Amino acid sequence: MRRAGRHFLQIPGPSPVPDRILRAIDMPVVDHRGPGFADLGNRVLHGIKRIFKTTQPVIIYPSSGTGAWEAALVNTMSTGDKLLMVETGHFASLWQALAMKLGLKPELIETDWRRGADPDLIEQALRGDSKHEIKGVCVVHNETSTGSTSRIAAIRKAIDAADHPALLLVDTISGLASADFRFDEWGVDVAVSGSQKGLMLPPGLSFNAVSEKAIEANSRASLPNSYWQWSEMIEANKRGYFPYTPSTNLLFGLAEAIDMLEEEGLDNVFARHIRHAAATRTAVDAWGLEVQCKIQDEHSPVLTAVRVPDGSDADQLRAVILAECDTSLGNGLSKVAGKVFRIGHLGDINDVTLVGTLSAVEMGLHHAGVPHQANGVQAAMDYLKATREAKAKAA
Ligand SMILES: *Cc1c(COP(=O)(O)O)cnc(C)c1O
Question: What Cα–Cα distance (Å) separates residue 12 from each residue in 73, 104, 141, 174, 244?
């Protein structure tokens, strides 16, 4: 049966793709080795550096984010190398599992899945590694399963305080272009990202930003790799080309996405996300529900994971919200399955999109019989009204 109106895709990635990007992608496929291609190649290869805030190479793969996770490791590590990983949630666990499949030896700092990575614990672990066997510290910038962020600049400081040579590898798949990220300033060695979250593109592109130190580690690393090889990419990219067929039409979209982010201004994009996250938490408080992330400074601007009361099932609630309000929300993953639902407020979102989404949640809580107080949407609107001035000044 036809459903009138637009579907609300409010999962924390893929995020809704703006019409402007869909139109940019809707082009005839071009010859990726032809003389004109380098214009597009150079445009996106230079533009994406500004989004990562780096002057270093950023490699663009035709793959999902998981591919770029693998690329980060196979280009910098050798069989049996130790990693220090922080289990902030489901995505950190998946990266760890991937590392083990590659024959690496991750040492894990566990958490209760309600916070970001703790820089002090990282420093302690590195100080304990006097032989410098740990070759990489792997952290998820925005943990999409729990809605917590890790303080990457503080983690860099912790690594330096321990005087440890390990590389800093950061998954900013859902962080980039939604939450502030500064590759050069924060001293990140490899940043991993993807197209379908803050960049507002369909799934299918992924990224590795690579520091000098990472490139140097690459020359010594011996894990086998071919498709993911940085050196061939970097060489071809110098002329605006790729060693194998890139996702040509997604690159048209990427060029448009970069334009859109820069027209709005990255700082305004980040402020918009922070404000929408705060409005969402205001609604959650008013409903009498609990946000999964417990640390004030580590609340994600990208998504909010909400705990349902004991005795309620978050997946049943999501099913009701989908059926009644044509709105998709994110599910709880592994440890928190059925216990949380996730509201995505990333990408091409305005106040009205957010209020619409929160309305769907509030109606769904009612229809599904989840114990809550009404007026969460009103509280969020009050917050948005009260903070309107700040937004107008930033623009
Ligand atoms: C989405 C996401 C991934 C996985 O990316 P895919 O494109 O699904 O492979 C990994 N890490 C984080 C933090 C994510 O949000």
Answer: 25, 29, 14, 8, 30
